[in-house]
Amino acid sequence: MLEKSLSAHSIEAYIRDVGKLMEFVFLKKIDLPPAQLQDTHLTEFVYYINDLGLEPKSQARIISGVRAFYRYMLMEDLIIQDPSEWMESPKLKRTLPDTLSYEEIDLIFKTMDMSLPHAQRNRAMLEVLYACGLRVSELITLKISDYFPDEGFIKVTGKNNKERLVPIGQSAIKHIELYLETERKALPVIHSDARDILFLNRRGKGLTRVMVFTLIKGFVHYAGIQKNVSPHTFRHSFATHLVEGGADLRAVQEMLGHESILTTEIYTHVDRTYLRETIHKYHPLSEKRQYPGS
Questions:
Q1: Is the CATH code 3.30.413.10 the one for domain 102-272?
Q2: pLDDT in tens, 11-65
Q3: Is 2-75's fold the same as 102-272's?
Q4: Could you tell me which residues are beta bridge partners of residue 165?
Q5: Per-range mean pLDDT, top range of 60-74, 220-234, 236-250, 254-268
Q6: Three-class HEC string of the chain
Q7: Which end of the chain has the least Cβ crowding within 10 Å, N or C?
Q8: What predicted TM-score, i.e. pTM, was given to this entire model?
Q9: Could you report the per-residue pLDDT of 66-78, keeping only the tens digit for each?
Q10: 100 and 237 in contact (C-beta within 8 Å)?
Q11: Whether residue 165 has pLDDT greater than 90
């Protein structure tokens, strides 16, 4: 686990996944330690978590954690053969992420009450979320030393401590500069471990994920938008709007920090309506196309 530089949240998730396997071993009265379980046991475990009524995504998450556990034991020479090699995950439906239109994002910006405390910080955070497509964890750990307004980039530390450079637009830069020159400079105390963190709370400490979620829920409600919006919605909107505008998928993958292009390909749904209309209009077998003499 340590070799992968995982976050505490990810480590807790892996422990819960392996805990499910131990729960199964106990309930089925299998008198074997994890290192001696066979592929037949793990196949039965897959059926067990399915019978629990868990969503396919949750089942896949648990199976992935168990596989990682056995890969670790194999790497540490605690087992000779990996019994999880043939564990099958449930087929997951690729759901399209929720997005906001540009008009909805603009409405959120316009309806924010800039007379409230920390309004400039909040506006700057939303600008960065949408301009750079950050995860909420990347937003709250963004450092001043990784902000390069003159070059038009920020350096982002993503999953597994992987760094990437992401362009940042002038609107986001403008609101960050306003925040730095006003609210952040006026903080009475900044804790030593947060001096390089860009976005701070009123006590001079870093923000939590929950606080950012709560703030965004409030802004969306105030704007009258009837959607379930989270910080990740801004990330999805960022990617969707880029692909809609014709951006290269590889470039979008790099900016999002996706390990695989397959993850980024979910955003190719955005032009389906246009493609469907194009087929109806131009394809010779389309029923909507009229031909001379028909």
A1: no
A2: 787 888 888 899 999 988 999 988 899 888 988 888 888 878 778 888 888 998 8
A3: no
A4: 155
A5: 220-234
A6: CHHHCCCHHHHHHHHHHHHHHHHHHHHCCCCCCHHHCCHHHHHHHHHHHHHCCCCHHHHHHHHHHHHHHHHHHHHCCCCCCCCCCCCCCCCCCCCCCCCCCHHHHHHHHHHCCCCCCCHHHHHHHHHHHHHHCCCHHHHHCCEHHHEECCCCEEEEECHHHCEEEEECCHHHHHHHHHHHHHHHCCCCCCCHHHCCECCECCCCCECCHHHHHHHHHHHHHHCCCCCCCCHHHHHHHHHHHHHHCCCCHHHHHHHHCCCCHHHHHHHHHHHHHHHHHHHHHHCCCCCCCCCCCC
A7: C
A8: 0.64
A9: 998 998 888 888 8
A10: yes
A11: yes
What residue type is 261 in one-letter code? I
Tens of pLDDT, residue by residue over 128-147, are 999 999 999 999 999 999 99
| Domain boundaries, given as residue ranges, for the chain | 2-75, 102-272
Q: Strand 163-167: give its sheet, edge to edge.
A: 147-148, 153-157, 163-167
**Fold category of 2-75 in CATH:** DNA polymerase; domain 1 (1.10.150)
Residue 212 has pLDDT above 50, yes or no: yes
Other CB atoms within a 10 A radius of the CB of residue 189 amount to 9
Identify the sign of the CA torsion 278, 282, 283, 286: positive
